[in-house]
Write a structure and sequence with these properties.
The complex is a heterodimer. Chain A is mainly α. Chain A is built from 14 helices and 2 strands. A two-stranded antiparallel sheet of chain A has the order 1-2. Classes of the chains: A mainly alpha, B alpha+beta.
């Protein structure tokens, strides 16, 4: 716009490069770590990581170009479709026996629960944006979103996939909070959750999940059993020191002491070779991306768009925070990958949907800085 | 924060003042808070990472290294045990071996079956292994097999990823070239037991394939033979696969032990004992060097070192010739007439003239009782008394000078004594005196006690080693002390300062036993210029009323003994042969003759042995193996397993040896009537004949 100098074409110049360049660096860094995790080979992790990023970047730019009316129009149908997919997965799992999380669509493997993370955010944003302002304090403002969240969460819990269901609930809760629901409901809800935690711990969790939680508090107690993952991850991070052991020199990952060095524990793989500096770089990039996202949310004066953007930020944040806390031994082992670094299509898709949505809101903000209050 | 709650506090009292702008305010406030929370999580994560990577870096770097690097000890090669000429009696052989570590086996029974199949183990070995693994302490490796072919080893190695707890490796195993000939002397090796590891917390003890001395010299010189383990540092994956070698420190072989033993002589003597049960000791009269300490039958230390099998143990246990007992040190026998030359020396020292005579009328009256001699010798002087072994002569003069005086000299010459030798244990026997009898039985010394003791019967007990030392001391007149280690300085033997004339009389008597009109004329050496002197002995183990000593149950037959030295004029070698239940001295002196022949002229000695071994059905080792095969075929399935601890095996054998010695003394409570024709001998025990015939050939 005003920054346009004429040298760079406008469509390129108006992209949010302040976020995109750190993101590219992070994905490239992730590819380097995956190259090392594969024992110094581009295949199979690094190559597919980069290819997927390119594909999903294209997808994100398509999302970014969607018009606001279309998005709002498509929100509820999308929610219903993903919910049906979740039910479909559940039925398929029951028919085949055993748990199943994905649908094989022929051309790709789809995890509907992953799709639900951004979709729940959009759905709730749409709900609160269309809710008459005066009704925000009424019980209906809580009940309908509560059901909207509870349905997918319970379906995902049945799979069972605790990590993803928590992520869905977290994204939804953040949107509810930002929509302006009374604080007392959140405080009461938190107190109820704290009270229910022991009950859930003893009766709701599977045996292996209980062990993982206990292990978090004392990983060395059972260093070869349940504590193995966390312990090896801490060894990898701690032994990296400030500067790391050097690219391709990580013994923990190369000698297979580190479990899942390319997915859930990719941060430990990175930290072993790049040290604290590498870790700070990763944290800094996430800080840049997330704070850009929050700025986008605040810059929008459209209720739907700002709730949508803030919810997307919360979803990415949840991934990052839980994953990093897990690999550093501050949270139980739940299968949540690190955005933009871990190898895996589903999480890359989810996070790129979030990025795409943020870029979309960013575009709306730019095109109509003061869109007005109308819904 | 206060502003954050404004919506709630403001909303309630004034009644629903909610509009788009208050919602917008709430959104802005709450995004700030959420942003703040996110920032603090980021700071928390950075701090946590800094703590792990900086404050705890040392700890985790160490843990990462200990993950990555695996240190394996390389068992040191054991020091050799050499004979006096430097030939190995125990050496090491490179081989392939397989161990299992019970702790790491998920399904021991299935795994052992699988390994057994791969290695073609015998069914009873597989059975033994299962028992062993069940009762073993988890950390200590249990040997499955050693001395494997490369093909077998390779077949197992490729399946290793599926076989947790199975450890194949190249290493060295102990090898005893002359096998059973040195079994009792050298001992054998085996994995350290739990107690041994408790005592000595050396990690090498639980390294698979590492063995320590379990008996004999192997046990005695354990610390010196052990050596220093090497170490190999390797980089390993979490699954235990070795990625590369980092550093290797070679082991340092243990120190060799050089013995005074003459390897070929030891082997010859052991083989010459043949089907009998007995022992041969030969020593150098000048230095005290023990040249030969053969005790047969014996076990094969090669096979014991691979673990003592149930069938093998059962076979050895059931053999009444007690193959597990080292008879040189732990066999106690009434010395019989072999003590007569020494008793003569006591008489001479007490003032008896060699020309003093008595009349043997088939016995002699001592006090108010008549005691039989084994023959009617007529008029007897000292020379004839030794040569013909006339008992009456000894009854008479022992009574005249008092047996306690005789006993004093006997003890001085080594009877009833222990010697300073590096052996795990030795029995010292009994020289009966009036004091000893009173202390032990609470009864006074009787004249029949003197009679019994004067001819080496009754309570008198000596080991073959003591008899050999006595011969050496008589032959030289010096206090010759036996020694087993070649590298120890030789202390010149001090002289007893016996009257040379007295010694000459005694030696002449012993010369006449072989080369004059004596009891062992067939013991003459088939060598022109070397003459051997000796003394026969026949020791009764039961009274004449129970057995005639030559036929009947093997256990009741007389022991055959022979003590000797050679050459007569200038004694160089002395020794003793004791054949258990040989039926008389005739079983003993031919062995002494052939052993001494071998010492002076090996070719002649080997010829004599070869003829005998053809008759016996092969060498001692060949017969042992054939015997084992026959036993396994017959009894293989019904054997009882050996005690879990090797120590128990030998403790039991030793306890039984003590008991048997005590039982031998039981006949001492009355006069032991000598039998006639003492030099005649019986035949070996019937079970000695198992394995003398090659299998598969119909007689």
């Amino acid at each position: 716009m005003s920054a346009h100098t004429g040298i760079i074409p406008v469509p390129i110049a108006r992209q949010p490069w302040g976020m995109l360049i750190p993101l590219f660096l992070l994905v490239g860094f992730g590819a380097a770590v995956l190259y090392s995790a594969a024992g110094g080979k581009v295949d199979p992790f690094a190559s597919s990581h980069l290819i997927r990023f390119c594909v999903f970047l294209l997808m994100a730019s398509i999302i970014a170009s969607l018009p606001r009316q279309f998005v709002r129009f498509m929100t509820y149908p999308a929610y219903v479709i993903v919910l049906l997919l979740l039910i479909g997965v559940e039925i398929l799992g029951n028919v085949r026996g055993g748990s199943q999380r994905w649908l094989d669509l022929g051309f790709m493997v789809l995890q509907p629960s992953e799709l639900m993370k951004p979709v729940i955010v959009v759905t709730l944003a749409q709900f609160y944006a269309s809710l008459p302002v005066g009704m925000i304090l009424s019980w209906r403002a809580l009940l309908v979103p509560g059901v909207l969240i509870a349905l997918p969460v319970s379906l995902v819990l049945l799979q069972p996939d605790l990590g993803t269901s928590l992520a869905i609930a977290f994204g939804g809760a953040v949107v509810m909070l930002l929509a302006g629901l009374p604080m007392k409901w959140f405080i009461g809800g938190s107190l109820a959750a704290i009270a229910a935690a022991p009950l859930v711990f003893f009766f709701g969790l599977q045996d292996y999940q209980r062990r993982r939680v206990l292990t978090m508090f004392d990983p060395e107690a059972d260093a070869l059993g349940a504590g193995y993952h966390i312990n090896q991850s801490k060894i990898a991070i701690g032994s990296g020191g400030i500067f790391g052991k050097g690219f391709n020199n990580g013994s923990q990952s190369h000698l297979q002491y580190l479990p899942e060095p390319q997915t859930d524990f990719v941060f430990a793989t990175m930290a072993e070779e790049w040290g604290l500096l590498g870790g700070l770089f990763v944290l800094a990039v996430f800080a840049v991306i997330l704070s850009w996202g929050l700025r986008v949310a605040r810059a929008s004066h459209d209720r739907f768009a700002s709730l949508l953007a803030a919810g997307m930020v919360a979803t990415i944040f949840f991934y990052v925070a839980v994953n990093l806390m897990m690999v550093m031994g501050m949270a139980p082992v739940v299968g949540i990958p690190l955005p933009f670094m871990s190898h895996g299509g589903s999480s890359m898709m989810t996070n790129m949907i979030c990025i795409g949505a943020l870029m979309m809101v960013n575009r709306w903000n730019r095109e109509a800085p003061r869109y007005g209050l109308a819904g | 924060m206060k502003r954050f709650f404004k919506l709630r506090s403001g909303a309630r009292p004034s009644g629903q003042v909610v509009n788009a702008s208050t919602l917008r305010n709430a959104f802005e406030r709450r995004t700030v808070v959420i942003g703040g929370i996110q920032a603090s999580v980021a700071i928390l994560l950075a701090a946590r990472m800094g703590y792990l990577a900086i404050a705890e870096n040392e700890k985790y770097r160490l843990e990462s290294e200990s993950n990555r690097v695996n240190l394996t000890l390389i068992p040191p090669r054991r020091g050799w045990i050499l004979d006096r000429n430097g030939a190995p009696l125990a050496s090491n052989r490179a081989d392939f071996r397989v161990d299992v570590i019970p702790d790491r086996l998920t399904d021991p029974a299935r795994m052992i079956d699988q390994v057994g199949e791969l290695l073609n183990l015998e069914p009873d070995r597989v059975k033994d292994l299962k028992l062993e693994v069940q009762s073993a302490r988890g950390f200590a490796p249990v040997e499955v097999a050693s001395g494997l072919q490369y093909e077998q080893f390779a077949a197992l190695s490729v399946r290793l990823p599926d076989m947790q707890g199975v450890v194949p490796q190249r290493g060295f195993s102990r090898y005893y070239p002359t096998a059973s000939s040195v079994g009792h002397l050298i001992g054998y090796v085996g994995p350290a037991s739990a107690e041994e590891y408790e005592q000595d917390r050396n990690p090498i003890l639980i390294t698979p394939g590492y063995k320590i001395g379990k008996d004999g010299l192997e046990k005695q010189f354990e610390q010196g033979l052990r050596g220093t383990p090497g170490a190999r540092r390797v980089e390993v994956t979490a699954g235990g696969r070795i990625v590369r070698d980092l550093e290797t420190r070679d082991d340092i072989q243990g120190d060799a032990v050089r013995l005074t033993i003459d390897g070929p002589l030891q082997d010859y003597a052991a083989r010459r004992i043949g089907l009998e049960s007995g022992s041969v000791v030969v020593m150098d009269c000048q230095t005290g060097d023990l040249l030969c300490m053969a005790s047969m039958p014996s076990f094969d230390p090669n096979s014991f070192s691979d673990g003592i099998g149930s069938v093998e143990y059962s076979m050895l246990r059931e053999d009444q010739r007690v193959p597990l007992r080292n008879k040189v040190l732990k066999g106690l026998y009434p010395p019989g007439s072999t003590v007569k030359p020494m008793h003569c020396l006591a008489f001479l020292q007490a003032g008896v003239s060699p020309d003093d005579t008595i009349v043997c009328g088939g016995g002699r009256r001592i006090g108010n009782r008549f005691f039989n001699c084994h023959s009617n010798h007529g008029v007897v002087n000292m020379d004839k008394a030794i040569a013909q072994s006339c008992d009456s002569y000894f009854y008479h003069f022992a009574q005249q000078i008092g047996f306690d005086n005789v006993a004093a000299l006997a003890k001085d010459l080594g009877m009833g004594q222990e010697f300073e030798l590096p052996v795990t244990s030795q029995f010292y026997g009994t020289v009966p005196t009036s004091e000893w009898k009173f202390n032990k039985f609470g009864r006074d010394w009787q004249s029949f006690d003197t009679v019994n003791a004067s001819i080496g019967q009754g309570y008198y007990l000596a080991s073959p080693l003591q008899l050999a030392v006595m011969s050496a001391r008589l032959a030289t007149g010096n206090r010759v002390n036996p020694r087993l280690l070649l590298d120890e300085p030789v202390a010149p033997a001090e002289s007893y300062d016996f009257d040379p004339e007295h010694l000459a009389y005694v030696r002449q008597g012993m010369n006449n036993v072989v080369n004059g009109a004596g009891t062992a004329r067939r013991a003459r050496l088939p060598i022109e210029d070397v003459q051997i002197a000796g003394k026969t002995g026949t020791a009764q183990v039961v009274s004449l009323s129970v057995s005639d000593g030559r036929s009947g149950p093997w256990k009741f037959r007389d022991h055959g003994l022979f003590t000797f030295f050679a050459p007569v004029e200038n004694p160089r070698y002395a020794g003793a042969v004791v054949i258990e239940h040989g039926g008389g001295s005739g079983s003993a002196y031919p062995i002494a003759r052939d052993v001494m022949t071998f010492l002076f002229d090996p070719t002649k000695g080997v010829e004599a042995l070869r003829a005998l071994e053809n008759q016996w059905g092969g060498t001692a080792q060949e017969r042992l193996e054939r015997r084992y095969a026959a036993y396994a075929a017959e009894r293989g399935t019904t054997v009882t397993p050996p005690p879990q601890r090797d120590e128990d095996i030998f403790d039991r054998v030793e306890a039984e040896a003590r008991l048997e010695a005590e039982q031998t003394q039981e006949i001492g409570d009355k006069f032991v009537q000598p039998r006639e024709n003492q030099t005649a001998s019986g035949s070996p025990p019937p079970d000695a004949l198992i394995g003398t015939q090659p299998q598969g050939i119909e007689p």
